[in-house]
Design a protein that fits this description.
Radius of gyration: 24 Å
Distance between the termini: 25 Å
Strand content: over 45%
CATH class: Mainly Beta
Number of domains: 1
CATH superfamily: TonB-dependent receptor, beta-barrel domain
Oligomer: single chain
Length: about 625
């Protein structure tokens, strides 16, 4: 699709529809969380400290990518978020690897079955389509199945308002350069528009977004080396959601989306390559019927995902195709005012194929499925004690049956107010299809088993103007899956791998206009295993509502030293050497400004990232963004 046509279309839509409708003011959000039980639960009755990033929070962070926003959450590290736009991303929760983190979009699990770790590529999702985010850390396999060993990131996409018809247009542009560079050319473009509304019993939402970025090479040249060529990144995202509510008890939600991404990349650390590129095309469809009855609700979430990827690397093409099907039927039944039971069964099917000059993986070979019945009980007493406990039986077509469970008690002392919590959870993570069937794989790999214990508290004080929470955790991994840099094979790491840490968050409403948010994360890994996870990380954010139309925000982030293992290839080239390195700590200062030019109709924003222009290393041998500026405009019609 021609990106210039999309940009012109967005402007045309803006002026054609100007004055059609007013933006509906959002209703105040209730203090509820979803992830803990799959249904709305009052936050004070939840046994977890769940981080919510609301629509209002996202407005204050305009100009930042999804990866950068997630990386400010305690316990979350998204490696690659400070590199050039389009760099592959490593998602780590509590020091866990990408295959231990489950990502949900509108409650539906998303994955690429042809990927190395059976994980989801966050580069496919533009932040402009997102309404809100919830992050729950700790093993959650009881409710969400294999892949939720260290936590769940649940992303809710935007949806229709109650107007008959409404629209929005957004455009922004910015610089894209490394530190100490003085070229302020505009190299980052992002634009899109949406149409949504409600007509009687039908609601609808449709959006189209486009991103184009250049200006930075993925690989970083060594000192005194000729500058590398710039690597481009482009993405187009389309989404359609339709809801049908025939009566108060029954509803249907349909969705379909198409995402396309093209990304140029280099040959690794300090190694340029002007020819390498990769493409990804994703098709997702699904429907979620819900039936509400006197004492509960029955939900069926179904989805199908098709992913086509191609890589042109070192003069040769590789083609990947994957298909995933998910069906999760669950029922909430309210026994009385204190006890709720959630029962369900989930079916997942994954298959992949790969074709290249070096290997072929046929679809008939690389596939597996899982059928998991599960049950969870939630008890909320009238004297402050709460209990969430459940179990799931993973029935895997290759690995047989595996039982996981969780026990999560908490106690609220309303007079203080203080909530103390504890949990013990287990998880089962099957190897990916790539780890089993590729030329680097091993069919004898065992599934990874995890157990996590956590203890913490959440308190509010100063007339609820301030909140403080702190959680300590210990996770033990058995049969963790590693990659041998000498033999180039996946293997099960011997013994028990431990990760421990503490996550502390504090918020303070200085006044009606000023708020302070801060968090600190300590994470220690017994076996680092090439995970670029900092031992210490801290974030501080100051938000100030200067007037009814002007909002200012400033943030600070500290990331400590990180340990890295990497290989070099001295002569002869067939004798690689394993090396270790320490990537030094770095600090970032960012600022955002948002101003309503026309109340509830038009606003502008400006964002400055890495204001101090710090030159640091996020990933060894790869470029890191320096000081960059972005500005944009959003119009609601």
């Amino acid at each position: 699709m021609n990106k210039k046509i999309l940009r012109i279309s967005a402007i045309a839509l803006l002026f054609a529809m100007h004055g059609m409708a007013q933006e509906q003011k959002p209703n105040p959000l209730e203090e509820v969380v979803i992830l803990d039980s799959k249904f709305a639960l009052p936050k004070e009755k939840s046994g977890k400290v769940i981080v919510s990033i609301t629509a209002a929070d996202l407005k204050k962070k305009q100009g930042q990518s999804l990866a950068s926003i997630l990386s400010t959450v305690a316990g979350v590290e998204i490696n690659g978020n400070q590199s050039r736009n389009g760099k592959d991303l490593g998602v780590y929760l509590r020091g866990g690897r990408g295959h231990q983190v489950l990502i949900l979009i509108d409650g539906v699990p998303v994955t690429d079955a042809s990927g190395i770790n059976l994980s989801y590529d966050l580069r496919l999702l533009p932040v402009e389509q997102i309404e809100s985010i919830e992050i729950m850390k700790g093993a959650a396999s009881t409710l969400y199945g294999s892949g939720a060993a260290t936590g769940v990131i649940s992303i809710t996409l935007k949806k229709a308002t109650n107007q008959k018809i409404a629209a929005n247009v957004h455009m922004d542009m910015g610089t894209q350069m490394v530190a100490k560079q003085k070229d302020y050319s505009v190299n980052d473009f992002n634009q899109g528009f949406g149409l949504h509304g409600k007509i009687q019993k039908i609601n609808y939402f449709a959006s189209l977004n486009s991103t184009e970025t250049t200006g930075i090479s993925e690989a970083k040249p060594r000192l005194n080396q000729t500058p590398f060529e710039e690597d481009r990144f482009s993405r187009v995202n389309s989404l359609v959601k339709v809801g049908f509510v025939p009566n108060q008890k029954l509803s249907f939600d349909f969705f379909a989306n198409y995402d396309k991404m093209k990304n140029e990349f280099d040959s690794g650390s300090f190694a340029d390559n002007p020819n390498n590129f990769g493409t990804s095309e994703q098709y997702r469809v699904g429907v979620t019927p819900k039936y509400r009855y006197n004492k509960g609700e029955l939900v069926l979430q179904t989805s199908a995902n098709l992913m086509d990827r191609s890589l042109f690397n070192f003069g040769s093409f590789s083609y990947y195709r994957s298909r995933s099907v998910n069906a999760d039927a669950f029922n909430k039944y309210k026994i009385n005012n204190q006890v709720v039971v959630i029962t369900g069964a989930q079916f997942q099917f994954h298959e992949m194929s790969n074709k290249s000059d070096y290997s072929v993986i046929p679809t008939e070979l690389a596939k597996f499925n899982m059928i998991d019945p599960y049950a969870t009980g939630v008890y909320n007493s009238d004297f402050g004690f709460n209990l969430n406990a459940g179990t799931r039986l993973n029935v895997h077509s290759k690995y047989g049956t595996n039982l996981v469970f969780n026990v999560n008690p908490s106690y609220s002392l309303g007079s203080l107010p203080l909530k103390v919590l504890a949990s013990y959870s287990t998880a089962f993570v099957a190897p990916s299809l790539y780890q089993l069937y590729s030329s680097y794989g091993d069919l004898d790999l065992s599934p990874e088993e995890d157990a996590t214990v956590e203890l913490g508290f959440e308190a509010s004080f100063l007339d609820k103007k301030a909140t403080l929470s702190s959680v300590a955790f210990l996770r033990e991994e058995t049969n963790a899956i590693g990659f041998d840099l000498m033999t180039y094979k996946y293997f099960n790491v011997a013994g028990i791998n431990k990760a421990r840490g503490v996550e502390t968050m504090i918020s303070y409403a200085w006044s009606d206009r000023a708020t302070i948010h801060a968090n600190y994360t300590f994470t220690e890994l017994e076996k680092q295993s090439r995970i670029l996870n900092p031992k210490h990380k801290a974030n501080l954010e100051l938000a100030f509502q200067a007037s009814s139309r002007l909002n200012l925000a400033a943030s600070y982030q500290f990331v400590s030293d990180r340990y890295l293992e990497y290989t070099t290839y001295p002569a002869p080239a067939y004798a690689p050497v394993l090396n270790t390195a320490i990537l030094e700590d770095y600090q970032l200062v960012n600022m955002n400004l948002r101003y309503e030019l026309i109340k509830n109709r038009m606003h502008v924003f400006a964002a400055a990232n890495n204001i101090l222009d710090k030159d640091f290393v996020e990933s060894r041998g790869f470029s890191t963004r320096g000081r960059n500026i972005k500005a944009g405009l959003t119009i609601l019609l």
